[in-house]
Amino acid sequence: MGNIVETRPFVPWEQMNNFMVDAFKGYGVPEEDAIICADVLLESDRRGIESHGCNRFKPIYIDRIVKGTLLPVTEIEILKETPTTIVMDAHDGMGMVASYRMMEKLIEKAKTYGMAGGAIRNSTHYGIAGYWTSMASKEGMVGITGTNARPSIAPTFGVENMLGTNPLTFSIPTDEEFPFCLDCATSIVQRGRIEYYAREGKPTPAGTVISENGEALTDSQQILKDLVSGTAALAPLGGIGDELAGYKGYGYATVVEILSAALSGGEFMKALSGVSEDGKPQMYHLGHFFFVVDPDAFMGQDEFKKIAGDICRALRASKKAPGESRIYTAGEKEYDVWLYRKDKGVPVGEGVQKDIVTIRDALGLDYHFDFEK
């Protein structure tokens, strides 16, 4: 991956994993659960999706545990189960833990019955959506998931943040070294990316966020405040209005909102803000849905993987635009990032370095990082 140039210092994967596990444990997460949570966050960094990796370790997970809007011990309740379906209540525990347990069960059900689906209510941020679908693709199955989230997206022709960034995510096994994995928000830019811009002191691209007056906003720090106060909203995929087909992103975001809430009997839209009517922090009560499909129940895994691979290879081999050297399929760039980083470690900017040191010192953990030299 010769076009990647990384100037930030690296922390070895094992060291970062051990540190995050110990830190989660230090804030009350059981060890078995801490191992799951650390791996989900690091998988984001392995793929180069830094908006959901170590960047979010402290602000989204540790800080919320401290604030009381995320419970470190996850008490999972199965509300309903059939041979092919499960509905869980995560009781405001770690969304990553509940989702891991859900996918374990659905994969087993799909192996037996060909398909399986599940939904979780009263959950919290479940990390990178592609982690859950990849659990299926590693078993030769198709994985599908979506989650609702704090209101961020305005409906087409509106300016009020009503829908979450609501990813609709697929992992599809192929006969190549990596699956086809489409993992993206239904907004042009997601809140995590704006958090990343703010931490790095970068502006948010114009046209991706609108004010309550319909104006484009670019100040990342201010946008985060305005999203919370409801005076700014993200534009759906496609963009503002209908000339660029923003109604398509709006429609897909609504699909995810409905499936996340209605399948689980959970809450939706404004109820997911994390802020009570009197302005105090409260539980998020997010919903997630998951589907697993076993190609063996159709024409077989081998044939499925070959055809999926043939489609991806044909796309990459098609005629390129002038000046372009390569066409990608979904999941390929992330695989290239992993090849580049796997022997180097996790690149950490100054903001993440400060978070790591702050947590280490608060817990009195015995770690020293090379970036402290």
Percent helix: 25-40%
Strand content: 5-15%
> What is the rounded distance between the termini?
28 Å
Order of helices and strands: EHHHEEHEHEEEHEHEHEHHEH
Gross geometry: globular
Structural class: alpha+beta
Describe this structure in words.
It is a single chain. The longest helix has 19 residues, at 95-113. Helix 1 packs across helix 2 (31-46), helix 4 (95-113) runs parallel beside helix 5 (129-137) and helix 6 runs antiparallel to helix 7 (220-229). Helix 4 links the parallel strand 3 (85-89) and strand 4. The protein is 39% helix and 14% strand. It is globular. With 373 residues, it is of the alpha+beta class. The chain has a seven-stranded mixed beta sheet with strand order 2-3-4-10-5-6-7, sandwiched between helices. The protein has helices at 13-26, 31-46, 57-67, 95-113, 129-137, 191-200, 220-229, 246-262, 301-316, 332-341, 350-363, and strands spanning 10-11, 77-81, 85-89, 115-123, 142-147, 168-172, 180-182, 209-211, 232-234, 286-293, 346-347.
